[in-house]
Design brief:
- The structure is a homodimer of 349-residue chains.
- By secondary structure, the first copy, chain A, is of the alpha+beta class.
- Chain A is built from eleven helices and 13 strands.
- In chain A, the strands form three sheets. The first copy, chain A, has a seven-stranded mixed beta sheet, sandwiched between helices. A four-stranded mixed beta sheet of chain A has the order 3-6-4-5.
């Protein structure tokens, strides 16, 4: 059955049931597993004109919004519905992680083509709900509209951070070292694999999973902020190269990135080498990694070690150092100094 | 020049300049009038991974999101860009008003077709910014994406309300009187006029303006909440009939609405009568009014009078009373009792 056949009212009721609704007007649907919601601070959830929450004392509120659009960020032919929903929240939680914030609440705005199956909508909601539960995020509101074109999912995520603990892009100074979490390039290679619809030994589920289900580095971001272990942070939504340029721009620094230190996902490297492409450039310019990049003064190394002892996964890798001349954005490779790619004009995301 | 020709970076810079950016990284564009922003409570605005704000002490946070989609909520052939932007914020501020909240912050997520002119984007941002300034709302973040289909504008609005002052849909009890603000039906008639592209003496700018530039009843909602003058409130996004049913559903009440009391916009009535249609049904089922409906116990009449002395525009009109039997949703007309229209299944919004 399609969404237009079901009608808006019944569709909304199904969505609410899956999100574990807390408003008075609706009943829980016993056939659906309802998440066990952390309702502390929730005053009014889904079902009224707006949601109402009580901010924690001594916390600032962190707000971000990001959309996933069919044909731009995903395609239904290779992204399962659950993964589309998972990803729609993940990219927002990644932004909160980059600020060092604890995610608390989310709003979900869906624009649905008339012919979309209700099953697909439920899959999207379930995937989003799965990640929400993992990070104890409660979906408190949203909106459902028709779309005369692509499927669109717009999520607003709300988090909290203690004053003066928030991580911005602008704090790095010359001498600070750059660390990146996890591995890079996997998601970009995975998306290429999915687009080419290739199968066989060359294709890595490790890469495709990185694209389909990004893992926002929520615990790491919070631990870094809590320990004051970094002077600047950003998440890698548009690639490591772009992220380094963004922090350098906002902080007024130059940068030396060491090509040999980059933690390129092994199966992504294999994929690109088989295609005759340079894995370093591909990994630096490929998007969708959703790892964190942090700038850490040498004197704070012990704090970072403490963070890594608390949050061991993903590991942090030192990949370079910020420098004085803001115009010098350098990739050091085999002893030669190249221009760091990534800060180009693009029309994407 | 189109958005894809300009490129994402430069487009973002233009949008930020128009919104009166507060982040460190960017310069104000001297050619553009930058709004004078109320920055109290703003910690980090547009330009980082997320925005950071300081909630007021003793306030709860109110969150809402609503999308405007080309071909569903507006059409570019008859909605000027400025009005599209104005409307995208207005529908969200109306939701905050219905909770009695003071609007504070907004996030703007745009999905833009490649061929859209940059002028149009600037118009949308300027229209949104105009209404934001009027209500001292600051746009603190957002997102710009490509759209392979229609233009979409998703706004998240954040407000504040004092605990126990918030207005919900669920508080009405039998005997409470229903009041609606302003006039109804104007926006629906205005949209019909625009769609038919008619011109001449039958067309009323009063109606088309109601559709193109809805005025969210922010001051009225805040005054009602502050004075505790209503037990329930809702805004009329999907028509008065629907709104009455929603409050009755959430409150477990029935309702008698007096057809002769409905404040139908005069030129809408004229329009529908000329078309041979029943103005009462058209006004009850027509959407986009964005007035407020409030449920007021008789004993609180003095409080409501106090509110009306403070906020004289729009006036409030008594249109009916809530009753005991939840299944009795009645329109009283010429002494006969009809079923109140509006609570039907639809696939709209």
């Amino acid at each position: 059955v399609t969404v237009s056949e079901l009608g808006e009212r019944r569709l909304l009721a199904r969505i609410r049931a899956r999100l574990g609704v807390t408003d008075r007007g609706s009943q829980r649907n016993a056939r659906v597993r309802v998440p066990d919601l952390p309702t502390a601070g929730l005053v009014i959830g889904i079902g009224d004109d707006a949601a109402v929450i009580s901010p924690n004392r001594n916390a600032q509120t962190v707000l971000t919004t990001d959309a996933q659009i069919e044909g731009v960020h995903f395609e239904r032919r290779f992204s399962p519905a659950r993964d589309i929903g998972y990803r729609a929240l993940a990219v927002n939680l990644s932004d909160l992680a980059a600020m060092g914030a604890r995610p608390r609440w989310a709003l979900l705005s869906l624009a649905l083509p008339d012919t979309l199956l209700v099953d697909e909508v439920e899959g999207i909601v379930d995937g989003l709900s799965e990640l929400a539960e993992k990070h104890r995020v409660v979906v408190v509101g949203g909106n459902v509209s028709r779309s005369p074109g692509p499927l669109m999912i717009d999520v607003t995520a709300v988090g909290e951070v203690r004053p003066r603990r928030v991580l911005t892009r602008a704090g790095a100074t010359a001498g600070d070292e750059l660390f990146v979490s996890g591995t890079i390039g996997g998601a970009a290679a995975g998306l290429e694999m999915l687009k080419k619809a290739v199968e066989g030994p060359g294709v890595s589920p490790a890469c495709t999973a990185r694209y389909l289900r990004p893992q926002p580095r929520v615990r790491l971001g919070m631990a870094v902020a809590q320990a004051r272990a970094a002077r600047a942070a950003i998440d890698l939504s548009d690639g490591l190269g772009d992220a380094v340029h963004q922090v350098a721009d906002a902080s007024g620094c130059g940068v030396d990135v060491d090509a040999s230190a980059l933690p390129i996902e092994t199966s992504a490297r294999t994929w690109w080498e088989a295609e005759g492409r340079d894995p370093v450039t591909a990994a630096l310019t490929g998007g969708d990694d959703y790892e964190l990049l942090v700038a850490v003064p040498r004197a704070w190394a012990a704090r970072l070690k403490h963070v890594q002892s608390r949050v061991t996964n993903p590991p942090l890798t030192k990949i370079g150092v910020f420098t004085k001349d803001p115009s010098a954005r350098v990739l050091v490779r085999n002893g030669t100094r190249e221009t760091l790619p990534g800060g180009f004009e693009y029309w994407r995301t």
